[in-house]
Amino acid sequence: MRNVVIPLNALDRNEVREKGQRFFIQKMYGTGVSGVEIRRELLTVHDHPLGHLKTIADEMGMFLVYSSPSPLWVANGRLNEELHLVIQEAKELGAVMLKVPLGCYDPLLCEMDDLKTLLEEIKEQLQLFIENDQTPNGGTISSLYRFFNDIHEYQLPVYMTFDIGNWKYCGESAAVALSHFHPFIRYVHLKHVEKYDGRLKTVPLTEENSKEWKAILRAFSTDLPIALEFPINDVEFIPYYIRLLQAP
Question: What is the pLDDT of residues 160-189, one digit of tens each?
Fold first, then answer.
């Protein structure tokens, strides 16, 4: 049985901002969800203090993931200073995972010792995850492969969020990416992407499009958390998508 996570950007963003992310944590009780991904870009006054979200999640028996659009590396090979604040927010949330994009990683400029120092701030409290996004810097196999090879060489505890659909936005093959990054993957973002009127679009999971994404999921152990990151019109539809995910 897979642990299913719902990123709150999968729901109507305006409604999430209006009602607060705590409202949707409570609403997901009984849907079969194991965790909720709190989105920093959707935080409003309704969500503070962040410790209240942790209390509600604990009451619902769910774990929290914290997702921030703040990249790990910024220009000129520097670590993003904003991440110190993001880490404090993740701790206040009681999140078990912090997810950010790679940003401008340059192996000739970026100092792994700086990253090692940053990781000292989170040790034993949460894990740092890098997600392949939809940018040339952080969404291509070549850019991410350089980073994760260096992570392996320095033996730093940084893991990968493998977003199945984002590879297509960057013109990459998810299957090829999987062959490169499988040892680093600890979290999966599941989305299905199709072309409409010449443009790529993320669409809900269906039985008809399941062949492609299920072929990727079969490569992962069933204890790996899977986030459903595609348009979900209402929380009441979540049990259907979980059944679809669990079906052989």
Answer: 999 999 999 999 999 999 999 999 999 999
Contact between 231 and 204 under an 8 Å Cβ cutoff? The reply is: yes
Q: How far apart are CA 198 and CA 167, in angstroms?
A: 17
pTM tops 0.90:
yes
Strands 192-196 and 199-203: antiparallel
| Structure-derived torsion over alpha carbons of residues 62, 67, 73, 78, reported in degrees to the nearest 10 | -80
What is the rounded CA–CA span in Å between residue 22 and residue 17?
A: 10
Q: Which residues of 170-190 are buried (b: 16+ CB within 10 A; e: fewer)?
A: bebebeebbeebeebbebbbb
SS3 of residue 47 by DSSP: helix
C-alpha span between 111 and 107 (Å, rounded): 8
pLDDT band at 123 (very low <50, low <70, confident <90, very high): confident
Of 147, 189, 185, 150, the closest CA to residue 169 belongs to 189
Q: Mean pLDDT across the stretch 25-46?
A: 97
Distance CA 147, CA 176 (A): 17
CB neighbour list of residue 57: distance below 8 Å, 6 or more residues apart? 25, 36, 63, 64, 94
User: What's the confidence (pLDDT) of residue 196?
Assistant: 87
If you ran DSSP here, which 8-state letter would residue 219 be given?
Answer: T
Does residue 243 register a pLDDT over 90?
yes
Joined tokens for residue 99 = 């997810």
